[in-house]
Predict the structure.
Amino acid sequence: MSAVVLTALGKFLFMDHLDWRLPFVVTAIIGWVGYIIYRNKTKPGILNYWGFRTDNFKKVLKKVLPFGIFSVIALISIGLYRDSINITWHIIPVLILYPVWGIIQQFLLIALTAGNMQDLKNRKLNKGMIILCAALLFASIHYPYIWLIAGTFILAVFYGWLYLKQRNIYVLGIFHGWLGGIFYYTILNRDPFLEMFGKIFHFSK
């Protein structure tokens, strides 16, 4: 949990303040993947417990897919209303790469946060409070962007409820990446591909 908090604080420092988006994301992914591999070697079965599993993939997908479709329609509709849609070819690599980061985020903020709170001995929080706490934490990480705070809070409430019933990080992470990418190009009028790679490779729209 302490490492999760440090990662969240690192996001504010390295991504928001110093604008070191790509180095931070790459470092966080490598670091947490290393931790996952280490824990799997020292405690067999932990991956399944966390939700890195495929046996319930279709079952969870059937529940997430309608939410995802509705979300995409809502994002495009809001984007049209606000005249904030800015879709370029950059969205293609974002939709391919972002799910990897989405899986890591869901592991940190759903599996290690909501999952651990659910399994604490002598816990006093019911499922509703666990979901609310995880959602508030997830939303607060996206401060100060109001639309992101609102969107991630709604997403985290649904994800938290679903995860506590059927643990599957893959489905949640993939949809997190897709919805997050679409969110940037429709609601925020931002290009995360340029923000991540533009300064390094001098990409243009």
Q: What stands out?
A: Residues 91-119 form the longest helix (29 residues). The radius of gyration is 17 Å. The CA atoms of residues 51 and 168 lie 4 Å apart.
